Every structure is written in structure tokens, then in C-alpha cells.
């Protein structure tokens, strides 16, 4: 038996910070995926994971335990991860691996996990992005509870600037950012208000405004050289706004083809000195999140 599941990447977060009494975020998903394959083999496979796959094996065992199975019941399962998502850039690569593993493992056992169950399982391993939800979700990425779900945002694309810097989320969180988070609380309150107004009225400009507020507020916590210039240029050429990975190095420019002059943006930005910090600029579609089985 072979089971395959996928979960998408994010391009950072639309909002992240101290919101409604604690740290929360709103991620969004793009059409870039991690694929997890689980297959039965005669040889013993559990415990032979590479360093990169060890969290996924931990999830596999956790799902077995969740449904009352013993770890030894998974001994002949082999887990393979094929991911196109850059690692340690703030693109939810690890969350995608874990969520896809959870979905595939549950399917192997003849079960189906809810998104809330997947969230709780992921949080036991590490802080988790809200890309595990099909809807845009305000999510407590540290405790695993979701605060509010918003459905989907209007059709939109993102121009993703992939930073060169790799940032380990666990190491990043070892630094106490609480004072900056508290300082940013009023800005995030304003951002959330704009975001919710944008969702209610299907206004991408309001959603972009919210994301931009959060991106600039985060400069106190994780500075991105040239971000203000990127924001100014993208707005001048018709983008809705910018967003960042609040604990990573990617920057997103929210746009659609009708209003944003992408070619002019490429031409004008490529010679800027701050572009030394970026590897590539690639356009992606914004899509619903969540893990799903693909080989049915």
C-alpha cells in the first residue's frame, strides 16, 4: 500500500504579532508543495529517518498513538518527503511536511483527521503555521488553537522574493521579543481591523494595507534591508501591499495581473543594492491551505 499527501507552502504571513491577548498569525498558502509518501516495506523503517525527516517520523508515530496503536505497528512503514519548499526561509516548509504526514498516516489507518486535530498534533512537535487550514485563519501558532476563520481572500497572486538568509524558527524564538511585540500591539490591532474590513468587502487594497502594517512593524524584530523601498516601488506600480515572513527572510508582493506592472518592477528593482540579499523573484498563486490525499 502506498499513500501520498501534499500540503502547501506559505509566503510568510499576512499578519503576525500580539493580537487579541497573545501571539497569533494569519498565514496564506501558495501553489508550492511538500509531498509525503508512506509505503509498506518488509524491512524495518521506523527510526532510520534522516535529520530532515525526523519530525515527520515523529508525526507518523504520534498519529498511530493518537488512534490507539503502538509504535511497533508502524515498524514496516517507510516515509519519503519530496518538497519543493525552501527550508528556513519562513515558508512553512516544516509545517507542510508535518501536516502532509499526518494526513497520509491517518489515511493509511483508515481515518481522517480534522484540521483542528492536525493543528494540535503539529503543535506538540513545533510552532505551526495556519497553512494547515483550508480557510484563512487567525491562529495561535504556539498553543494550537484557532481564534477565527475568514474563508478565502479574493483572487490574488504574490511575487515572492526569496531571501538568502536561513533562519531557524526554534532558534529565533529563543530570543525574547516580548517588549517589541507589546510595542507593536496597537499597530497589529489596526492591521487586524483593516484585514477584517478587507475580507468583509473583498477589498484587496485593505488586505494589502493590513499586511504592510504588520510587515513594517516587524522591522523592529527582524529587519529586512530595503523593505521600505520595496514597498514604495510595488505600491507605485499597482500592487496591493507587501507582506513578510516575520521569522524568515521572504518578502511577498500582493498583486493581480491587471493592476500591477510586474515587468517594470523586475526592471527597476534588479539593480537596487538591497537585492544582494535575495536569491530569486518568483510569482505564485494564492490558494486554499490544508493537507490532502492525492493518489486516490
TrEMBL record:
It comes from the Bacteria. Residues 56-127 form the GHMP kinase N-terminal domain. Transmembrane segments: none annotated. Its EC number is 2.7.1.177. GO terms for molecular function: ATP binding; kinase activity. Pfam families: GHMP_kinases_C (PF08544), GHMP_kinases_N (PF00288). Residues 197-259 form the GHMP kinase C-terminal domain. The keyword RNA-binding does not apply. SUPFAM superfamilies: Ribosomal protein S5 domain 2-like (SSF54211). Signal peptide: none annotated. Keywords: ATP-binding, Kinase, Nucleotide-binding, Transferase. This is L-threonine kinase. It comes from Clostridium formicaceticum. The lineage of its organism: Bacteria, Bacillati, Bacillota, Clostridia, Eubacteriales.
Amino acid at each position: 500500500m502506498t499513500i501520498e499527501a501534499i500540503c502547501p507552502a506559505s509566503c510568510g504571513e499576512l499578519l503576525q504579532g500580539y493580537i487579541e491577548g497573545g501571539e497569533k498569525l494569519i498565514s496564506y498558502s501558495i501553489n508550492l508543495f511538500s509531498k509525503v509518501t508512506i509505503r509498506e516495506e518488509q524491512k524495518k523503517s521506523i527510526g532510520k529517518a534522516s535529520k530532515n525527516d525526523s519530525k515527520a517520523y515523529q508525526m507518523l508515530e504520534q498519529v498511530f498513538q493518537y488512534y490507539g496503536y503502538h509504535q511497533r505497528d508502524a515498524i514496516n512503514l517507510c516515509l519519503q518527503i519530496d518538497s519543493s519548499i525552501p527550508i528556513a526561509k519562513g515558508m512553512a516548509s516544516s509545517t507542510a511536511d508535518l501536516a502532509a504526514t499526518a494526513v497520509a498516516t491517518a489515511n493509511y489507518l483508515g481515518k481522517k483527521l480534522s484540521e483542528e486535530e492536525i493543528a494540535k498534533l503539529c503543535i506538540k512537535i513545533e510552532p505551526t503555521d495556519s497553512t494547515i487550514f483550508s480557510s484563512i485563519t487567525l491562529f495561535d501558532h504556539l498553543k494550537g488553537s484557532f481564534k477565527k476563520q475568514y474563508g478565502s481572500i479574493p483572487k490574488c497572486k504574490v511575487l515572492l522574493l526569496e531571501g538568502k538568509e536561513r533562519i531557524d524558527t526554534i532558534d529565533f524564538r529563543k530570543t525574547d521579543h516580548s517588549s517589541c511585540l507589546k510595542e507593536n500591539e496597537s499597530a497589529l490591532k489596526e492591521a487586524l481591523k483593516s484585514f477584517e474590513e478587507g475580507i468583509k468587502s473583498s477589498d484587496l487594497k485593505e488586505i494589502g494595507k493590513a499586511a504592510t502594517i504588520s510587515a513594517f512593524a516587524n522591522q523592529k524584530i527582524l529587519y529586512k534591508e530595503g523593505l521600505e523601498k520595496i514597498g514604495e516601488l510595488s505600491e507605485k506600480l499597482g500592487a496591493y501591499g507587501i507582506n513578510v515572513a516575520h521569522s524568515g527572510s521572504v518578502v511577498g508582493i500582493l498583486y493581480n495581473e491587471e493592476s500591477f506592472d510586474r515587468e517594470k518592477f523586475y526592471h527597476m528593482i534588479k539593480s537596487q543594492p538591497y537585492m544582494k540579499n535575495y536569491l530569486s523573484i518568483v510569482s505564485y498563486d494564492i490558494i486554499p491551505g490544508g493537507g490532502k490525499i492525492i493518489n486516490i
